[in-house]
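Hi R.,

Here's the input for the adenosine-5'-diphosphate complex you asked about:
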Amino acid sequence: MGLRMISVRNEYCGIVEKKGGEKAQSQDEIAAAIESENLTKIYHDDIRAVDGTSFSVRSGEIFGLLGPNGAGKSTTIKMLVTLTKPTSGRLRVFGVDVSTSPEAVRAMMGYVPQSLSADGDLSGYENLLIFAKLSYVSKKDRAERISQALQYVELSDRADDLVKYYSGGMMRRLEIAQAIVNRPRVLLMDEPTIGLDPASRTQVWRIIKQLNHEFGTTILITTHDMNEADVLSDRIAIMSVGKIVATGTPADLKRTVGGDIITLQLLSEPPTIIPIEIGKVIQTSDHTIQILTEDGEEAIPLITDYLRGQQVKIESISINKPSLDDVFMKYAKRRLDEEVPLHTTGAIRDRRNIVRHKA
Ligand code: ADP
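And here is the predicted structure with adenosine-5'-diphosphate in place:
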């Protein structure tokens, strides 16, 4: 990244980056970027799409809104971008109410919808020009803002090509450029990487993180990709049947699912008990023992010391940590499908082999 690009980026949202890449702290960062209080949306045929949700997105954070289809995520986003009105309750963006001041809310907001909104028969530049006009970017600023947005998503050299010849990744980046051309304080992204190949997905993740880090842009994403939610989100809310059923950092939520499972392959019979302060034996067989612990990394040295003291030799150790898939299954899937046994979630835990040695 050249010096010129850094200076363009720093002035992009009018937020000055601190030395060392630390985010600038302002009064706004103390306030909530998005606040909902008992927010409810009932569609005409009595469907409670959003059923009394209360949540808060802090200024400057990346917030993941997760949930199965029909949970109410899109309806929440539609209320935020003022496409539909809440039936009751409150929804505010930086203190501004979406129902009473929709224009002021729209002026602070960028929105990347799931489906393509760009016109394939126009060039990238022409699409951005339309968005710049629609989002009230002044005539004198338009050319510069469009050029900066294109540069930010690395599409400057393809600006004059028709969008129908863009790859999926380029189209998605153009959508992001459209959403940031008005320099929003809050960016909403509905499934930002759906259908993208791994390289394009990583590129979009990088852009999302840069926007958040360099300009302090508050970003709310919805996704069904738990890895994406884990990689990007500072905090997560899980929605199910119109309600928020869990909120927290990815690490906090994973802790609510259960501890780490340590599996040891041994070269002799395992002991039938281990000290309770190390963990709880959940399974033993010929040369295998599985131990449930609160913190796997801390427990492993204690376990290996203990086994050494018992003259038991270890062939390998692996650790299974709860993943966001487990969290999702616990909070969302279970509400919809109570018969799903929770133990099946163990199959999709993150598995890490941390020691493998032959005796
Ligand atoms: P999600 O984005 O989590 O999949 P939605 O917000 O799209 O969930 O939908 C929540 C519920 O509201 C679903 O039952 C859906 O069928 C219903 N719904 C969504 N939009 C409308 C609409 N325009 N009219 C009536 N019902 C709707």
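One thing worth noting: The first helix runs from residue 3 to 12.

Cheers,
M.
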